[in-house]
Amino acid sequence: MTDSCAKLRVAHSGGVARILIDNAERRNAFDFSMWRALPALLAALDAEEATRIVVLSGAPSLPFCSGADISEFSTVRATAEGGRAYEAANVEAFDALSRLGKPVVAAISGFCMGGGMGLAAACDLRIAAEGAVFGIPAGRLGVGYPPEAMRYVVSAVGAQTAMDLFFTALRIDAEEARAAGFVSRVLPEEGFDAAIDRIAAGIAANAPLTLRAAKAAIRRAAGLPHALSAQECERLAAACFDSADYAEGRNAFLEKREPRFRGG
């Protein structure tokens, strides 16, 4: 791990790994070292057998992500070459979220701006607190987004809403984000973290092979970035029927008890 992992803390609870964005000094902006560290962190969590779901959120009392660290615009991104390197790190982080075999949930409270929207868009499921605020202020900063990064936002909200967000640089609230299809649910701010924990724990209790196969098939059907091939999706679905978890699910249903899935 790199030193930046101090700003990307991981908390484990059962089969849930929560990545906490913790950069209070910059209102939870993502700096260059954080962008570079996220792919390795995600790869490590994907390799952990005990981890069944990943949740990305702000640390307690902090917003989800206020975007890229603007203080680096005059240093790391001062030139076209530096800007390209920075954007490449952004895309690698988005791609790492998208490629993760396990479900990834973005738990969004407070600000979700610019690069923060990109991070959330690369996740599988997005749930917002009532007071969450979304926006992409690139037009007011003179920042250009490459198509590799833009496709995540377009996949999440469609071309028209993406045009609106980028052209106007306006902010939208959580209900507007839900209406645009960017988030699936809007939950009360009070008890939001506890609600996310319950949702994540419920997902983690389900059959891991089924979750992996469902994620792959949905991404394939929706044409999302880094979707697996049809053959790979079929292989993952077939593995479910050959698994001990499939037998466990059937037996638990017949015995009227909660299933105990082991991921094999």
Provide a quick synopsis of the model:
Helix content is 47%, strand content 15%.
State the low-pLDDT regions, or none. none
Order of helices and strands: EEHEHEEHEEHHEHEHHHH
Strand content: 5-15%
Averaged pLDDT: 93
Number of strands: 9
Major sheet: arrangement of strands: 1-2-3-4-6-9
* General shape: globular
Descriptive report:
The protein has 264 residues and is of the alpha/beta class. It is built from 10 helices and 9 strands. Helix 1 (32-47) links the parallel strand 2 and strand 3. Helix 1 packs parallel to helix 2, helix 2 (80-99) packs parallel to helix 3 (115-122) and helix 3 (115-122) packs across helix 4. The chain is globular and about 60 Å long.
Could you list some keywords that capture this structure?
globular; alpha/beta; 3-stranded mixed beta sheet; 264 residues; 6-stranded mixed beta sheet; 47% helix
List the topology elements.
Elements lengths: L7 E6 L2 E6 L10 H16 L5 E6 L21 H20 L4 E5 L2 E3 L1 H8 L2 E5 L3 E3 L11 H11 L1 H10 L3 E2 H6 L5 E3 L4 H13 L3 H15 L7 H12 L2 H12 L9
Parallel strand pairs: 2-3, 3-4, 4-6, 5-7, 6-9
Antiparallel strand pairs: 1-2, 7-8
Helix pairs in contact: 1-2, 2-3, 3-4, 4-5, 8-9
